[in-house]
Design goal:
The chain is an all-beta fold. The chain folds into two domains: about 150 residues, Methylamine Dehydrogenase, Chain H (7 Propeller), CATH 2.130.10.10; about 150 residues, YVTN repeat-like/Quinoprotein amine dehydrogenase (Methylamine Dehydrogenase, Chain H, 7 Propeller). The chain contains one helix and 28 strands. The strands form seven sheets. Strands 3-2-1-28 form a four-stranded antiparallel β-sheet, with no helix packed on it. The longest helix has 4 residues. The two termini are about 15 Å apart.
């Protein structure tokens, strides 16, 4: 059974749970009503984690064992008040498990980790104190560390609008990994606005990248990237995912940076079944033209059983259980969707 039969949806106004049982979908929530839920995940032991934010009350991590009752973490990710760069925690963008450690990527761009299932957090100085970070500039969505990949002692961190950083020593040091990608800006020090990353579970050197300036692939861990956009209606977009069993890749194209709606008002997901060499619209079940909404970087989840779920900025949710052949629009209309996760 596809894991996308049970979904956690984070929105601008709380979180919701969607469950598919007996041929019917049900919705429960909201959790954290009125609060921005920017990331949903689990710690290594299966404890649920939620990243909560408010323009007035700040940012926090909450934990739950049942996705119903939640407890706020007292010692969550945070910068020291006297940090020399005046860094502030504006939002938690992502959680990522690496063995028994869980990482959190945040805005203003930084990386934190927890070794106790999300109860307490420490910063990663090699990112948070990067020598040249005074030259970093935010993207439209902020200065955000929004994607973390790992394999053993190797880490990759995607930061907008800065680029990809790679570590070979568990985060003690990092190098830049953007060669071959068109910079989003070349004023001063070049800046790369990486939107999302997904790696091959069995070969961590194979990584696919949805970037501000296109879709890319690397086979050497990020030393060199190549564009792979054959068949896409547009190269701009945010979300990218991969079925680790079949290798199928999924993206959600958007017209352009200056026009962030689907091409010709036709919202759909495109897939590649040849590592990104070519792309096609994924299956059937998409609405007719007139859908002027997109999908954000955390709003797609792909499991390894043929399941994909994607949420839109208009609050719609689409799912497939057969690797993208057939899609169903769920009977819900939620607030603007920020994050989608299996639960």
């Amino acid at each position: 059974m596809a894991q996308v039969n049970h979904l956690g949806i984070g929105t601008e106004k709380g979180a919701y749970r969607l469950d598919h049982e007996g041929g019917q979908w049900s919705v429960s929530g909201p959790l954290f009503p009125g609060w921005k839920v920017s990331a949903l995940s689990t710690a290594p032991d299966g404890t649920y984690l939620a990243a909560i934010g408010s323009n007035w009350f700040g940012v926090s991590v909450h934990r739950s064992h049942d996705f119903e009752s939640w407890t706020q973490v007292e010692n969550g990710p945070k910068y020291k008040e006297d940090n020399p760069l005046g860094l502030k925690l504006n939002q938690i963008w992502t959680f990522h498990n690496a063995g028994n450690r869980v990482y959190a990527g945040v805005d203003q761009a930084g990386l934190f980790y927890s070794d106790d299932q999300g109860l307490t957090w420490e910063g990663v100085p090699a990112i948070n104190e990067w020598p040249a970070r005074e030259s970093w500039s935010p993207g439209f969505g902020g200065l955000a560390a929004h994607r973390v990949l790992s394999h053993g002692d190797r880490l990759w961190v995607g930061i907008s609008a800065v680029g990809v950083f790679r570590s070979e020593d568990g985060g003690e040091s990092f190098v830049r990994a953007d060669e071959g990608v068109i910079p989003a800006s070349e004023e001063g020090e070049p800046a790369w606005c990486v939107h999302s990353l997904v790696a091959d579970r069995d070969d961590p050197n194979r990584i696919w990248r949805q970037d501000h300036r296109g879709v890319y692939r690397t086979t050497d861990g990020g030393d060199k990237w190549e564009q792979i956009e054959n068949g896409l209606p547009a190269s701009f977009g945010f979300a990218i995912g991969r079925n680790q069993e079949t290798g199928t890749l999924f993206v959600a194209p958007i017209t352009a940076d200056e026009n962030r709606v689907p091409v010709n008002g036709h919202f759909s997901v495109f897939r590649s079944q040849d590592d990104g060499d070519s792309w096609e619209e994924a299956g059937v079940g998409w609405p007719a033209e007139g859908q002027f909404n997109g999908a954000l970087r955390n709003a797609m989840v792909v499991d390894d059983e043929g399941g994909v779920a994607i949420g839109t900025t208009a609050g719609s949710v689409f799912v497939t259980a057969d690797d993208g052949d057939n899609w169903e629009q769920l009977p819900v209309s939620l607030p603007r969707i920020l994050s989608v996760a299996t639960v």
